[in-house]
Each structure stands twice: as C-alpha cells, then as structure tokens.
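S.,

Sequence below, as promised.
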Amino acid sequence: MPLIKIDLIDGRSDDQVKTLLDAAHCAVVEAFQVPEGDRYQIVNEHRPSRLIVKDTGLGIDQTDNVVVITVISRPRTEESKVLFYQ
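The prediction came back faster than expected:
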C-alpha cells in the first residue's frame, strides 16, 4: 500500500484534484499490483509563495500548474518503477 503525497499550488477545482488522485491511483494499481481498494493519498495545497520549484537545467519553466508527487513504498523492482513513471 504505497502512500501518495501530492503538493500543488492552491486554486485547482475539486474535479482537477480528483483527476490527479485517480491517475496516481491507477498508476500504482497497474505498476505495483496493489489491490484497487488500497488507496492512501494526501493532497497539500500551498500558496504560490510556499511551493517553489525552479528549473534544474531541464528547460522546464515553473507555472502555477506545478505538481510534486512523493511516493512512499516498500522497495519495488526496476521494471515496476519504470512502469509507474510512464
């Protein structure tokens, strides 16, 4: 049962947050073969000044659409991690 923590800038609608949570859950179920009912997710919404994500040389500009996903899980195979990240 992985724990998914999602940090984002405040202001998204409930439907947008639900879409993010559902997508993360589908990825965990598919990649890690966890039961559909094992769902542990936390969303933290921040004022823009409280979530700073800057370019680290990848050429990706920060916007208010930034999403930071943290996955806490037992060790997984490289294959399952690659599938999850896809």
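The CA atoms of residues 4 and 24 lie 8 Å apart.

Coffee later?
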